[in-house]
Specification:
Strand order of the largest sheet: 1-2-3-4-5-6-7-8
CATH architecture: Alpha-Beta Barrel
Number of domains: 1
Helix content: 40-55%
CATH class: Alpha Beta
Distance between the termini: 26 Å
Shape: globular
Strand content: 5-15%
CATH topology: TIM Barrel
Largest sheet: 8 strands, parallel, barrel
């Protein structure tokens, strides 16, 4: 069982974080970008060509994290591979002890820097969750056996919008055990989604991890509002940062406010942190929220042994 699965099953708030993309610099670059995250996160997401931009493969970076004692959440999209390649990547990763996966459809190639690339989209996010559940049961989609079956902790992504509750329920039905939610700068929207998730029974089937961003400028907020699908940043929020004498401090305040609100909602099982600061932002935010380093959290919940 992975650390992330253990944390969520134990009912203690889990923290996942997102690994910055890797292009060059070898394993040393992986270590440099991992350093601000590894101490705090139960597991670290490794993205799969995000935004339809090519980077080092999620499998290669996930293996690097695994070898450094940091538990990866390996992301896979249906955009770039057919079901044969996807099955090979899942089984290959499991061969090395990687258990956590997050599946999504993926951005269309036209949104990236190589718009002439052909999208595959053999399977969408829900189809990928079904595929992983099938592999975890001990067989390929063809029916051929996998012995022994790999243990997989299966996740997906979803937008925290009440209109997408049915999509989230479909992913749970397909076999998802956790869902990392898209960034949300409108607390009322996340609150409505969480309430609908509880009412529909979704939170009894999957763990919900809202995403919280750590930014360094109002410009980044404007970019998200204008360019990132599904993300709306209120004008008042952008103006608050622009008017601040210390935008970085104000943005940390904003992240803490959004995180505290998220953790106060029923059915929320933890947080997914996405830092664009490349510094101690994750440590500062976790400390402010009263979240201790991962090793301390695990020790605090370790059962005592009677002798």
């Amino acid at each position: 069982m992975s650390r992330l699965e253990d944390a969520l099953l134990a009912g203690r708030p889990a923290v996942t974080a997102e690994m910055p993309t890797i292009d060059g610099g070898g394993v040393a670059e992986v270590e440099r970008k991992l350093e601000p995250l590894g101490e705090w996160a139960d597991a670290v997401n490794v993205t799969d060509n995000p935004g339809a931009h090519a980077h080092a493969s999620s499998l290669a970076v996930a293996l690097a994290l695994h070898h450094h004692g940091v538990e990866p959440v390996m992301q896979l999209t249906g955009r770039d591979r057919n079901r044969l390649a996807l099955q090979g990547d899942i089984v290959g990763a499991a061969l090395h002890g990687i258990e956590n996966f997050c599946f999504m459809t993926g951005d269309h190639p036209s949104s990236g820097d190589e718009p002439d690339a052909k999208g595959v989209f053999d399977l969408d996010g829900t189809g990928l969750v079904t595929l992983a559940r099938t592999i975890g049961s001990g067989r390929y989609l063809s029916g051929r056996p996998i012995e022994p079956p790999p243990h997989l902790f299966i996740g997906g992504a979803e937008t925290p919008d009440v209109e997408r509750i049915d999509r989230a329920l479909a992913k749970a039905e397909a076999g998802a055990q956790f869902l990392q939610l898209q960034l949300c700068f409108v607390p009322e929207r996340l609150e409505a989604f969480a309430a609908a998730a509880v009412e529909s029974g979704l939170t009894e089937r999957v763990a919900l991890l809202p995403s919280i961003s750590l930014l360094s400028s109002a410009r980044s907020l404007r970019f998200m509002d204008e360019k990132v699908w599904g993300v709306d940043v209120p004008a008042a929020t952008i103006e608050r940062v622009e008017a601040s004498a210390d935008p970085v401090a104000t943005l940390l305040d904003l992240s803490a406010e959004l995180a505290e609100h998220a953790l106060s909602l029923p059915g929320i099982a933890g947080l997914h942190l996405i830092s664009f600061r490349r510094d101690t932002g994750v440590a500062e935010l976790c400390t402010r929220l009263g979240i201790r380093p991962r090793a301390e959290r695990e020790h605090a919940h370790r059962p005592s042994i009677a002798i």
